[in-house]
Specification:
Strand order of the largest sheet: 2-1-3-4-5-6
Largest sheet: 6 strands, mixed
Number of domains: 1
Shape: globular
Number of strands: 8
CATH topology: Rossmann fold
Helix content: 25-40%
CATH architecture: 3-Layer(aba) Sandwich
Mean pLDDT: 85
Structural class: alpha/beta
Length: 179
């Protein structure tokens, strides 16, 4: 094998496993921008039921649990039924040695500390309560909470997982992929 072949990532190194319960993997989803981004940037993905999170790199030890809003993570951290399920997943990831990153889509907030002053529309939960919960999970289980704009979620997923995108190039108005 020559050096050029050794430098190219294998398909396994670029393979993204997406939980088959993620809405955009199903027909009629409004989140097709994720699959479009992945396809345009040469990232192969397969749907598969994941025990932890929603996205993992093939053979990786980091899993991303995507939350589409602050309200969703609030429900996961405060609603008794949802909290039990979420905490079981957090503990399971910890036991398996998988680093869990909770990626929260928000066009307003950029860190957990921006949540000061936030108030749920559906419960008495406020931002300070969420901050305490997130800090506790970070300390006890190594869970990392990140925020990103909705239109950047696919890009951020592959960045966190260390998957190098292939940049599309334009030639005569047509897109091609460079490797």
């Amino acid at each position: 094998m020559d050096n050029k072949q050794m430098d190219k990532p294998t398909i396994d190194e670029r393979l993204l496993i997406v939980d088959s319960r993620e809405k955009w993997t199903q027909n009629g989803s409004t989140d097709k921008h994720i699959s479009t981004f992945l396809s345009r940037h040469g990232v192969s993905w397969v749907p598969k039921k994941l025990e932890v999170g929603d996205y993992m790199r093939f053979g990786g030890k980091v899993s991303i649990d995507r939350k589409q809003s602050i309200e969703e993570i609030s429900k996961n951290l405060t609603n008794p039924k949802d909290k039990k399920r979420f905490m079981n997943e957090v503990r399971y990831a910890y036991r398996l040695g998988i680093r869990l990153v909770v990626l929260i889509e928000s066009n307003k907030y950029t860190s957990i500390y921006d949540l000061r002053g936030w108030q749920s529309q559906f419960s008495p939960t406020n931002g300070n309560a969420l901050i305490r919960q997130m800090e506790r999970l970070g300390f006890a289980y190594g869970v990392r909470f990140e925020f990103c704009r909705s239109q950047s979620v696919a890009k951020r997923i592959i960045e966190i997982l260390g998957i190098e995108p292939v940049k599309p190039q334009r030639r005569n108005g047509n897109e091609t992929q460079s490797r």
